[in-house]
Specification:
Protein name: ABC transporter domain-containing protein
CATH topology of the largest domain: Rossmann fold
Bound molecules: adenosine-5'-triphosphate
Pfam family, one: ABC_tran
GO molecular function: ATP binding; ATP hydrolysis activity
Organism: Vagococcus acidifermentans
CATH superfamily of the largest domain: P-loop containing nucleotide triphosphate hydrolases
Shape: elongated
Keywords: ATP-binding, Nucleotide-binding
Number of strands: 13
Order of helices and strands: EEEHEEHHHEHEHEEHEHEEEH
Length: 294
Amino acid sequence: MTIELNGLSKTVGSKLILNDIDLVLEDHKIYGLLGQNDSGKSSLMKVIMNVLLPSEGHVLIEGETGADRPEKLKQLYFLTQDDIYPKRARVKDLVRWMASFYKEFDTANCKRLLDTYHLDENRRYYSLSQKEKSLVKSSLAFSVDVDYLLLDEPGYGLDVYHRHAIYDDLLASCKRHPKTVVLASHVIDEITAFLDEVIILEDGQILVHDSVERLANQAVLVCGAERPVRDYLQGKEILGQEYDDGFIEAVILTGEDVADAAEELTLSRLNLQELFIQLTRDVRQAGGAGNENE
Ligand SMILES: Nc1ncnc2c1ncn2[C@@H]1O[C@H](COP(=O)(O)OP(=O)(O)OP(=O)(O)O)[C@@H](O)[C@H]1O
């Protein structure tokens, strides 16, 4: 069972918010969906969920579109940051609705999680604090044993202790019922350890899609004068580069020992968060370095 996005674009008004996305989400993998604010993470998940309709291209769930086979969408669950619940809904209503809509919903597990976080089911959802709302949403999401979970910043408003607690709940949910997870987050360091693959979005396009193992272990920043850097980059896998007044900064993937590089080059290994910052930083904020194509 896979989800496949082919040539997918979305335009809202005159703005292109998703741009020609090709992506295959494979069985039982956990994908980290990374990107600066407004890069298109939520929009991408909404298009997969058929909440937003693509302007071009399509999303296939086991080879069929959600429009053709709406029941396929029941194999997906989306934790969204949008306010989707009725105004006066109580927590216990949400639990009841989940159980009636998803046959795979584990009510006992959900109640146990709500209990763990001291959440009173009689409270009205919109009277809860941001922390409590996030814990309710994650308790619901991690109790529905569908094949695909799309999670839009599930740790929003949570402190580091509770963020780690819900990562544990997520992993327990994957253990109970193996599933494919797409996890959008701005807290990269905390999630790297349990991701299989990373997708970095920029301006609605996929900038990088690779295994976390390769990105976290093989990313290197190469800096130096143009000539030696260009010589070193020959035949290397380049993820991004910037040229500024005779100097180049390039991000590459390499399994080679960085100590073997020429003396006039500076090479430093990047962890996933550093790689993300390096690839997506705003050039103006980074000190005016121009793109080499400018
Ligand atoms: N319904 C809409 N109408 C107009 N513009 C929209 C709409 N939905 C999204 N956008 C625009 O699309 C772009 C991508 O938004 P999106 O919410 O998908 O980004 P994001 O990566 O999830 O951001 P964040 O990390 O801040 O949650 C933004 O420029 C946003 O303003």
